[in-house]
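TICKET: design request
STATUS: open
ATTACHED STRUCTURE:
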């Protein structure tokens, strides 16, 4: 009978039947025989990455919000992805166990220290980081050894001594921002979201590259490069699922990309500026020493060993500018909003600043500001509520199995915990949605801060600019 049925099928029906059987076999394996079969989660998430695609792309990055619902339903560990074996880029067409992506997300804050710990050998999951098309940058580089070398070269740029040495660069831009805000028309509201991002972008450009876009001079702070950086962030989601689009967008014909994606024009302007700057530095390294202060290019081109490629320098430049301007701008925006909305906090902060800064005609030093306890508390609370990078930063467990928050996790599993599950956890921070700077003045806050204040992540891939 079965043979008769097969004989009656057309080629098309054969294909449909075979596909159905393959999908069924994959489903049964994922549910019944997979190493992560004991971890709860939506069955469809264990079968296909398109479950996450729906929320990330079609719901505008809504998977983080959906994760909260999944943890309410399934508990502190949720399986959110299937087993996907990728090819190791370093060894063409060679399968590597450490790139088998079985995905778990944790909600217990204790898991953070088990995933992003000092000395961790967990690697970054290329599925997310390849979407940035910046594989040699300190942020997106997946290889731990290469990342360590790059971070060691860049370390001096973000050291405390360097910050103190050229804080006048920062002060210059802050003064310019204050001047623009204070001289504006009271009848015309100012978009502080753009104003603070313009300031941070100009500061980072001057600090890291000794150049500036003069974003603070743009009408309504709407500098095209700034707008491009902001508008390009949502593009990460589709590029994550269609990585072959990334080089097409980044390196395709500009006339075509500008027509299809007008917001990318500012990105290309940024690319051209950095490209010209790097060409000058490579052609005439001595010119770097004519700058007012050392730049990122000093560190990267003066290191021992082979000099980085132009592409590598471009990727690092764009990474530093994009990451720094967006996160710092978000923190300042959140902080100002909460201080202006909270009379008690505003009055206490103003009193502390007036005592430490009696004359506004004089600039106050960073060394003096960092000693002010309530100002420091306001900054930390602003950082906590703005979170930083809210997207869970995936790590691949390895080289061996691991124990995360008491759970055995096989090598090759991609694990993560979103920062909101730490900073907004009521067991760690009471009334987590409220702006309460006083929490950072409590006697027992140091231990909590060391474990659970993680806006810059932790471990060997911690944010370079955390100081």
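STATUS: resolved
RESOLUTION: sequence designed for all positions
ATTACHED SEQUENCE:
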């Amino acid at each position: 009978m079965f043979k008769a049925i097969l004989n009656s099928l057309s080629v098309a029906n054969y294909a449909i039947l075979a596909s159905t059987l393959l999908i069924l076999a994959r489903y049964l394996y994922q549910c019944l025989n997979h190493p992560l079969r004991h971890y709860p989660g939506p069955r469809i998430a264990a079968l296909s990455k398109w479950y996450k695609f729906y929320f990330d792309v079609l719901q505008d990055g809504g998977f983080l919000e959906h994760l909260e619902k999944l943890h309410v339903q399934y508990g502190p560990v949720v399986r959110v992805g299937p087993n996907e074996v990728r090819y190791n880029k370093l060894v063409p067409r060679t399968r590597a166990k450490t790139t088998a992506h079985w995905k778990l997300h944790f909600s217990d804050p204790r898991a953070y220290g088990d995933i992003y710990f000092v000395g961790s050998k967990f690697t970054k999951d290329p599925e997310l980081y390849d979407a940035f098309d910046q594989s040699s940058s300190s942020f997106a580089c997946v290889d731990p050894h290469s990342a360590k070398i790059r971070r060691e070269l860049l370390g001096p740029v973000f050291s405390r001594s360097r910050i103190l040495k050229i804080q006048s660069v920062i002060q210059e831009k802050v003064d310019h921002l204050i001047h623009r805000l204070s001289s504006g028309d009271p009848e015309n509201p100012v978009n502080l979201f753009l104003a603070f991002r313009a300031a941070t972008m100009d500061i980072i450009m001057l600090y890291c590259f000794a150049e500036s876009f003069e974003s603070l001079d743009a009408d309504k702070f709407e500098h095209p490069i700034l707008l491009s950086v902001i508008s390009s962030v949502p593009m990460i989601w589709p590029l994550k699922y269609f990585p072959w689009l990334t080089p097409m967008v980044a390196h395709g014909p500009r006339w075509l990309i500008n027509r299809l994606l007008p917001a990318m024009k500012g990105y290309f302007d940024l690319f051209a500026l950095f490209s010209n700057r790097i060409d000058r530095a490579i052609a005439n390294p001595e010119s770097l020493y004519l700058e007012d202060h050392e730049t990122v290019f000093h560190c990267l081109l003066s290191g021992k060993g082979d000099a980085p490629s132009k592409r590598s320098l471009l990727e690092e430049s764009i990474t530093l500018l994009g990451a720094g301007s967006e996160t710092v701008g978000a923190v300042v925006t959140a902080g100002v909003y909460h201080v202006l909305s909270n009379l008690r906090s505003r009055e206490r902060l103003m009193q502390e600043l007036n005592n430490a800064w009696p004359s506004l005609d004089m600039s106050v030093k960073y060394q003096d500001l960092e000693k002010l306890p309530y100002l420091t508390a306001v900054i930390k609370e602003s950082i906590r509520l703005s979170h930083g990078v809210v997207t869970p930063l995936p790590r691949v467990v390895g080289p061996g199995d691991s124990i995360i928050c008491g759970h055995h996790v096989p090598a090759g599993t991609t694990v993560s915990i979103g920062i909101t599950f730490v900073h907004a956890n009521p067991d760690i921070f009471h009334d987590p949605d409220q702006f309460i700077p006083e929490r950072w003045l409590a006697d027992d806050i140091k231990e909590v801060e060391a474990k659970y204040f993680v806006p810059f992540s932790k471990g060997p891939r911690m944010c370079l600019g955390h100081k």
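CLOSING REMARK: Residues 144-341 form a domain with the Cytochrome p450 fold (CATH 1.10.630.10). The beta strands are 77-87, 95-106, 123-124, 395-396, 402-404, 407-409, 413-416.
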